[in-house]
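queue> pop job 88
queue> type: inverse folding (structure -> sequence)
queue> payload:
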C-alpha cells in the first residue's frame, strides 16, 4: 500500500476482496482508479477462483479504470477466460520486459524495461477482449489492456520502483495521466 501511495502520490483506500457486495462497496467509494494487488493465492486452483469470484465480477462489471498488478493481472485475465499456469517456483527480482505494442502506458520509456517481478503463476494467453502490450522471457503475457475499457494488467510490480529502476513508477504516472485526460 505504501509503495502504491508513493508511486501515485495519492492516498489509497483499501477495500478487502471479502467485503460483502464488493461491487457496491467499490462503486460507493467513487474511485478514480481501482488497483487489484498481489496475493499468495494460486488462481490455478478451482477453490481459489471461487473464493475470488466477487473480485472477478467486479472486473467484468467495472465502469471505472482498473489496474491489476501481479495477482490482480491474473484476476483480470481469469475473469475474461484466460488460462493460468503454475511455474513451479517463485520468480523474484528485476526482469527485462519487452514492449510488444506501442501504448501511452509506456510513453517516454525504452522498448525494454527493467521491472520488479514476484510471482509463481502466469496467464498463458491474452484474453480475447485485450491487446498484448509486453512480454518477458519468463512470462509471455506481462502487460495487457482491454480493447474498449480502461482495464490494464501487468504481471510485474510497477509500484516497487527504485531510483535505479524507475520504469514501473513511470508506467503508473502514465496511467494516471491517461485517466485524468479521459
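queue> result:
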Amino acid at each position: 500500500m505504501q509503495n502504491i501511495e508513493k508511486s501515485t502520490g495519492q492516498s489509497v483506500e483499501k477495500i478487502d476482496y471479502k467485503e460483502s457486495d464488493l461491487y457496491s462497496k467499490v462503486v460507493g467509494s467513487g474511485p478514480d482508479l481501482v488497483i487489484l494487488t498481489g496475493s499468495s493465492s494460486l488462481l490455478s486452483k478451482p477453490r481459489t477462483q471461487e473464493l475470488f469470484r466477487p473480485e472477478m465480477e467486479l472486473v467484468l462489471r467495472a465502469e471505472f479504470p482498473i489496474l491489476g498488478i501481479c495477482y490482480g493481472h491474473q484476476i483480470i485475465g481469469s475473469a475474461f477466460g484466460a488460462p493460468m499456469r503454475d511455474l513451479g517456483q517463485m520468480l523474484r527480482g528485476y526482469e527485462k520486459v519487452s514492449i510488444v505494442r506501442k501504448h501511452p502506458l509506456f510513453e517516454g520509456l525504452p522498448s525494454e524495461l527493467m521491472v520488479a517481478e514476484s510471482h509463481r503463476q502466469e496467464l498463458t494467453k491474452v484474453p480475447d477482449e485485450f491487446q498484448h502490450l509486453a512480454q518477458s522471457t519468463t512470462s509471455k503475457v506481462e502487460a495487457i489492456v482491454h480493447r474498449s475499457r480502461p482495464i490494464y494488467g501487468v504481471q510485474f510490480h510497477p509500484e516497487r520502483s527504485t531510483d535505479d529502476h524507475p520504469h514501473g513508477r513511470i508506467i503508473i504516472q502514465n496511467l494516471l495521466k491517461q485517466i485524468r485526460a479521459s
